[in-house]
Amino acid sequence: MKNNKPNIVFLFPDQFRSDFIESNGADWLDTPNINYIAENGINYKNAFSASPVCVPARTCLLTGMNAIKNGVTSNLHNLRGDWKEAGVKIFPELFSESGYYTAGIGKMHFYPWDEKRGFQYRVVCEDKRWLDVRDDYYHYLKDKGLKKPHGNEMDGYHENKGAVINKIPWEHSWDRFVGSESVKFIENYGSDQPFAMMVGFPGPHCPYDPDERFLRNIKDEKLPLPIPEQPDDAPGLRKINVEGNKRPWNGVDYSDFPDKSKMLIRKHYSGLVQQIDYEVGKIIQALDKKNLLDNTYIIITSDHGDYLGDHNLIGKASFFDSAMRVPMLVMGPNIKPKQISNDLVEVTDVTSTMLSWAKIDIPGWYDSTPLPGEGMPGSAGRKNIFGFLTDGWMNFDGRYKLHKYSNGENLLFDMKTDPTEQENLIDHKDYQEIRHKLEDELSKEIMRSIDASMNDRLAQNGDMSQDPTFGFEGWERPWPHPPKVEPARYEKT
């Protein structure tokens, strides 16, 4: 089959924060292959994960809907089991139905883990913390006489707060396996028909376990210091963060978290980023070798960032920038090179962008909107980023950011004058008009989303009192109703 449509390669490292690539100012490490994407396309400097936890962020991508509408606001939730009967089309299915060969390689965080979710070709290498998952990587290691290690099986794990050297040789490591399998797919199937491939790297997620060779060139003296904690702002978030990381999946106690440990974690995280960059380079080389690069869109972003000690926190799951700001870089046919965009965009927007590249109609229930830029399908960024998790909500209008948490902690920051979120303005008398505006906008978005999320339970569209069929015994309501189609809020002019 001749490949007339563009190919799409969607690179999705796990827990990858925005400011740890050279293109975004990280001068202590080397990311030449990610830089290559920026040099040949667009770097979105204001890209965010609206639901900065693994499963919610990924479900937003799959469905094009925000976390309230799709019902997944924590890692314990899952996409509804009857999504097909409900009329929901997840993006791998849309691509497959349109003549694309779809591949999901690496971590997808599906429940069950071996579900394909519309990907025709699947190689599974799940989260670095899911050690009992008998995925493709498990069997690969078993054939080599190896097994997935817990962090605490590696020297210095507890003493160094999760910063270790992986005991598995680099050539058999998580991200090496995923990168190699991605290259194998391109080599074996890249020329057969148009393909859409999502590559879920398990790194640079903790444990912070790079191979030693990726630490040698890190410039320690240039590593940025962590953003200080303001103890009176959100002590409840800090407590939740500490207790959550004590659980067996991690088992590290961060109640005492000295700067020395934070800096070591940052160095090891940098090494993991460089490992990811190496694999990005191999994928680009494979595309070039098969003469596919000129007809392939490449996009790299992430499900969320990592605090790495900022605000005295680790990981993600709240709305400070370190957790929700992510890298987003795009290159491909007709995209003008060396663009820098300051438009507000979010991870979910990748979905409608990929569909637009493939000339696939965007479903009417999508919150996802195509990304803007010269040569891109969208015309403008967002006016607001609305964030939704089980225990927190957020509204960011590009300058002011409001966080609200279920424990009663509320935060308001002026991101223009205070980009590190150090001065909480929530009770400041001069900012009450701004606070109320953001709260009103957030309330309206929540109401809109809840209404849309209930659409599957509609008994009827219209007035049942005037429907004679409703009056007879045995009437049955339709189940489930398809997703609610809403007027487009972001249109290309």
Largest sheet entry: 8 strands, mixed
What is the residue-averaged pLDDT? 95
CATH H level of the largest domain: which superfamily?
A: Alkaline Phosphatase, subunit A
Number of domains: 2
> How many helices?
12
- Rg on CA atoms, Å: 23 Å
**Which second-level CATH architecture of the largest domain applies?**
3-Layer(aba) Sandwich
Strand order of the largest sheet: 5-4-6-1-7-8-2-9
Question: Would you identify the regions where 5 or more consecutive residues have pLDDT less than 50?
Answer: none
Shape: globular
CATH topology title of the largest domain: Alkaline Phosphatase, subunit A
Q: How much of the polypeptide forms β-strand, as a percent range?
A: 5-15%
Share of helix, binned: 25-40%
Number of strands: 14
Order of helices and strands: EHEEHHHEEHHEHHEHEEEHEEEEHH
Q: Would you tell me the structural class of the helices and strands?
A: alpha/beta
Ends: how far apart?
Answer: 34 Å
What is the CATH top level name of the largest domain?
A: Alpha Beta
Task: Describe what is shown at a glance.
The protein is 27% helix and 12% strand.
What attributes does this structure have?
single chain, about 500 residues, alpha/beta, Alkaline Phosphatase, subunit A, 2 domains, eight-stranded mixed sheet, four-stranded antiparallel sheet, 14 strands, about 25% helix, globular
Give an overview in words.
There is one protein chain. This protein has 493 residues and is an alpha/beta fold. It folds into two domains: 7-383, Alkaline Phosphatase, subunit A (3-Layer(aba) Sandwich), CATH 3.40.720.10; 392-460, no CATH class. Helix content is 27%, strand content 12%. The protein has twelve helices and 14 strands. The protein has helices at residues 32-39, 54-63, 67-70, 91-97, 136-143, 174-189, 235-246, 259-289, 321-324, 349-357, 432-453, 468-471, and strands at residues 7-11, 41-44, 47-48, 101-106, 121-124, 195-200, 296-300, 329-331, 339-341, 345-346, 385-389, 392-396, 400-405, 410-414. The strands form three sheets. An eight-stranded mixed β-sheet has the order 5-4-6-1-7-8-2-9, with helices on both faces. Strands 11-12-13-14 form a four-stranded antiparallel β-sheet, with helices on one face. Strand 12 (392-396) and strand 13 form a beta hairpin. It is globular and about 75 Å long. The relative contact order is 0.18. The model has no long low-confidence stretch (mean pLDDT 95).
